[in-house]
């Protein structure tokens, strides 16, 4: 993995704006949605402010805490509409702590796998077992054993896994879909952050390490000399592995690095299915819709 | 297995002698399970001899089943609540989160008391102790079959049934109804209960519809209900009503496309959220499938002690979870005596009797077990039953099971005193086949104390074979049910109309076929042409089945042609096609129809199965069809409350009769000056059941009108003739008052005015004008049915799922 950059571990405030717009070809009579609209508080981030704006005004917008501890929202719109816009804005204080990867080498992979996952045993099992989008097949096992051999020191093994995915796969949108399986991904050798996170998680689970899927945002830098464009950021996803000391370490195979202070966490679960940013069911005679997602992550001074 | 208690009168001779009667009753009552290669539902195989259990043995079983149901409800509440059982190490978490019936989205929703109905599949171990082979908690099926079979056996063995002190089944359904109402009593004084069925019939259709008939709650499909403001509403043919209790008769995976399984769009989006908000209780809860987990059997004894502070009275067949080293080792060492079971039986992945496997197959299976040991368990194989079946040696060894049904209501548990027993059709098979391939038996639980009130209190053993009237007050009619009733009406009417037409044509063919050039032959030709035009009005010919092609070789002799129009199943417009469609529509609203109607419908289907070689008495078959249709009319006219159900059924008949009449007239009467016109006219009047009135009018002198004018008057305009078009419109106007829209007068205005302005005498003089008039009227009536169907049976816009990436 890329070496840690100390400046990425300075505490900072981010304003995150995420606007999802659907345009429909015909009136939508009713729309039912499930969404993760509010980032959760974690050991390294605190949500200072948060607003949600849905247009048209939903008849019902409610929130509960799901099995994985995320804020889960239900929204229901009964008035006919041709456009749905869900906008959320958060002010987040991030205080990432630089991990010591070499310290993890005091355990082998097998030793780490022998320690029961931290916390609630049901969730621990959930992060160890296959999940709907992460089915370990023989090629996944082979890849896992390659990077995560039982007697390998844990820190080195994790580094090898993440860099291996980063090196062997090409980032390319449109090649995969929300239902692409790990087996297909291994054939395609290309995908997006969601796919790479799934693969990393599949490999970790295959050797008995608990792993979860994290969805959130990443602050990006414009090309040198160019101003940063609004809305040019994207939602992001990465993997998190449960360590023998009971903590979790977030790793980003898409960018070959540890998730540092530039990462804002929204929610986590077994895989993408548990933390879809926005999904729903609509009733309409129309057959087409277009989706536009605009994400903006920028630093602000408190 | 112990010898069954002796019941006087249940002798092999008596049972053998009643076998045919039982089969006939099963068929007559429409008790079907599974389908044949062509998709036709097949009657269930029922052995006349009941499985008899004595009072003392049952008392122990009853207590044990009640305890198990209470326990399972408590386990479910814990698994979707605090998960203490997992935290305390009493249940391994893998068998919960690894089970496809566990829905994370349902976590945190209280389910206590909502696991209302459970079923248990029982067998006996080598020591003769009852053991549970499987718990059915997701969507327990079979209670309807148990009651339907009891109805048959009670009739087939009437003298024995009467003389035997026997626990009755009816009380179970009463308790179920009370249990459901109790669950909603916190929500409102008169909780609204509906039963949600799958939009397409599946293998469970009979069972669920029969149970629904006994319960009297409206049966809906997901199209009939919708979430609004986090509440579930029933869109009825009147106003919308809130739903408090939803009896889920669809698989959890098809219940909520938003929160359970996305993709198909089937189901009710938001249903899980509505339960989370406490606005509706789903019975059984969507996540209850997690209890149908063979591995759980290994842990239930300890769970019972922890949750109930009691010993488990009815353990599972001995079970080893392969996720534990000891369990896995035991399983590996006993592959000859166990069944290996995945956590959940999915298509292509079910229980495996390892003794039946080859060496290689065993090795392959064991490799799968070793790769995901937590996903597997092993269960002891129970010895076969020694059971008496008609046609087999006494005490024949059969794989089998007894399915019992238990309610765990707020006011205590109720066990159905009896159940559904099924056995393998062949000796030696290890696997208990699905009901469709098995032989079913009624289960008699003897009653020591004839004076004892049957459970529960307050549901004292009434005459349990009677089907109750609907629940108190008007039951709202969901749009899909209204639509099915309407098409039931239309297809019965179409079958009758076609049968009458064919009967008349067959007479003409009989008399005139061999006499070309005569007036009679010309009339015959006209009628045959008219029949073709009327029956093929849809201009569509269904795909002919292989059976059709064999049974109906091409070649156009009129007799063969008529025969095809009666019997050809794939031909749209044939009597058989219409009857099958009527049956299909009726089976979707079975809970709204009397059992008598069902008998008639079953007979109608049977009448229309062609025999080989083709020597049916066509006249006799057609007469039987007409008789069946008249019987259904009679039941609808004399047996139904004049509510919305009746109105939509009647509307279907009226719409169809009006359209058929005009279609027939248009193709027979305008040719007034052609040879044979008088014969054709009389044939038409006969086919429209108005010949006698016509002759009487003519005898009275017809008030100086031409015969054609009298016929037109009678069949189109005469509001006193129940076969005239004017009469149908009159009735339709009344029927539509039960519909929220459209305005009946507005819908019927055009054809009503056309009829009011028609002059039969003038039309009779001008064949061209008559043809135009009839063609217009036909189009106007089609417009009527179009707007009635659009307004009364609105279909929701289709559902689409969407998902934002990353």
Automatic annotation (TrEMBL), chain A:
InterPro entries: Bac_transglu_N, Papain-like_cys_pep_sf, Transglutaminase-like. It comes from the Bacteria. Residues 185-255 form the Transglutaminase-like domain. PANTHER family: BLR2979 PROTEIN, BLR5614 PROTEIN-RELATED. This is Transglutaminase-like domain-containing protein.
